[in-house]
Amino acid sequence: MGNNCTGQCAGCYKRDIEILKSEQHQILSEKPYESLSRKSSKNYVQDAIPLCSKYEINIKPITKSVVDIVGDKSKKTKAAIKIQSCWKGYSVRKKQLLMNNTKTSVETEGSKITGTYFERLCNLSKLQKLAKMYNGQWLGKDRHGKGIQTWPDGAIYDGEWQHNTAHGKGLFRHADKIEYEGEWKYSKACGFGIMRSQNGAYYEGEWENDLQHGYGKEQWADSSVYEGQYYKGLKHGKGKYVWKDNSYYEGEWQNNKIHGLGTYYWIDGRGYKGEWKNGMMNGHGEYSWSDGRKYVGEYLNDQKHGYGEYKWVDGKEFRGLWQKGVQHGEGVYVTVDGRTKRGLWQEGKLVQWLK
């Protein structure tokens, strides 16, 4: 620790461990994951938010650090040992897993109601009543050509018809003012179209069988945006999701989940680039901090797990095995001047130096 120390003495190593622990407070920039019963639904990032449903994306970032959250020293130390086992964005994505069966816009109540409107035209008794509320072209007893159909509750379709079905281009406006304008095929959204909600949310892109299918752009009321590929109403393929705080993920999706290769960036400069599985970091990846620190290695369920290398800005390194987010097993500690020292770690703590 003196002026002539090369950085390999026990005192220097102890100091570096304390620095590593203190860095974890910066890494852990969000509260540890809590049960859903204690969370407000407003904080959930919906896996797939219905355009006209009651669920709205609201992911106001929790800016308190773990230092602010845990008051006493013992709790701070316990939190610091867990290297990046909880971090900003982790609990947000975890909540996505609980929403994995939620469909996107067109399978919401709005589109189902659309179906019921046109189904009435197939009912003979209702067809006769609704005929009085139709103004347009006919082919025999069928609406055929261009025309405007209104319903008793104020819903309206203005567009092209084929044998009593919306077919071609047209605009349908629900009684609650949600509207779809675009291409239709046998009374279902099919082709290119735009669906808008009164709260400002909308989807613009390709449709098939009343579902987002192909390439499209979806924006929610809080200005969060997804642009990319859809498959049968779900984000699937390549796409970019930008949250309202401008943090974003760009990469591969599967069934509305971050899955495959992709990059996630936070507004504070942190980023992860690598493999994902079911909304979590899984496989090989690279996690970096704005100050230059970096971890390159294996992940399992959002935690360092397997072989990985952690590098400090000043050149120090840890190369070795990790388990559940902490050093566990053999590893090599590299000093600033490049000297190495092999050791054995258990649950994040150095057990002994090895010869």
UniProtKB/TrEMBL annotation:
Keywords: Repeat
SMART domains registered for this protein in UniProt: IQ, MORN
PROSITE patterns: IQ
Keyword Chaperone attributed: no
Name of the protein in its database record: MORN repeat protein
